[in-house]
Design goal:
Nucleotidyltransferase, domain 5; five-stranded mixed sheet; RNase_HII/HIII_dom; 5 strands; globular
C-alpha cells in the first residue's frame, strides 16, 4: 500500500525521472502535488506497470493532481553537465513550474540538490512507497515514451518506438550500422568495446 504523505507539510510534492540509462533521447522528470485524500488503486512504480496501465493512469493522475509539471532535458544538456546533474536539474525545473510552490519535496533515489530553501528528503525506491513519487514516475515515463515515439518517425532504423532509447542489442546494432544522430548522448558509451565505430 503506497503512502499518501511523508512530511507534516500540507503542500508536498513528489518528483521522479525517466530515461537516465538511455543512449538516446532526453532525460525526463515530473513533479506533482496530489490532494491529501488521493488514492488510486493501480498506481505503483511505473517500471512495475505495463504500458497500457500507465496510459490508463496518466489522465486520472493529471485530472486529480493539484498541480503537475514535466521537463525534458535534451542530450546536449546531458553531455554538458552529465546525466546525474541533468536528472536533478530536470526534477528541479519541474518543481519550479508547480503552482502552488511546494512546502516540502520528496525525491525518488538518493541524490538531489537544495532548491530555493524548500526542505526535501530523498527516498530510495520512493516510487514504490509514496503515491506522489509513483505518480511522478508514471508521468515522466509516459511523456518520455511519447517523445521517443515522435522522434522514432524521424529515425525509424533505431526502433525507438520499441526500445525508447535504452541500450538494447538492436539499438546498439543500429548505432554500429548507421552511426549516431542528434538525439544520441555522445558522452555515453554507445557501443561496447568490441563494437567500436570505425571513423
Amino acid at each position: 500500500m503506497l503512502l499518501n504523505h511523508y512530511s507534516d507539510f500540507l503542500i508536498e510534492c513528489g518528483t521522479d525521472e525517466a530515461g537516465k540509462g538511455c543512449l538516446a533521447g532526453p532525460v525526463t522528470a515530473a513533479a506533482i502535488i496530489l490532494p491529501k485524500n488521493f488514492s488510486l488503486h493501480l498506481l505503483n512504480d511505473s517500471k512495475q506497470l505495463s504500458e497500457k496501465t500507465r496510459a490508463l493512469l496518466k489522465p486520472i493522475i493529471e485530472t486529480e493532481a493539484i498541480s503537475f509539471a514535466v521537463t525534458h532535458l535534451d542530450p546536449l544538456v546531458i553531455d554538458d553537465i552529465n546525466i546525474l546533474n541533468a536528472s536533478i536539474k530536470a526534477m528541479q525545473e519541474s518543481i519550479l513550474k508547480l503552482n502552488p510552490i511546494p512546502e516540502y519535496i520528496i525525491v525518488d533515489g538518493n541524490r538531489f540538490k537544495p532548491l530555493n530553501q524548500i526542505p526535501y528528503t530523498t527516498i530510495v525506491k520512493g516510487d514504490s512507497k509514496y503515491l506522489s513519487i509513483a505518480a511522478a514516475s508514471v508521468l515522466a515515463k509516459t511523456y518520455r515514451d511519447e517523445y521517443m515515439d515522435k522522434i522514432h518517425e524521424e529515425f525509424p532504423m533505431y526502433n525507438w518506438k520499441k526500445n525508447k532509447g535504452y541500450p538494447t542489442v538492436e539499438h546498439r546494432e543500429a548505432i554500429k550500422k548507421y552511426g549516431t544522430t542528434k538525439y544520441h548522448r555522445m558522452s555515453f558509451r554507445l557501443l561496447p568495446e568490441q563494437l567500436k565505430l570505425d571513423f
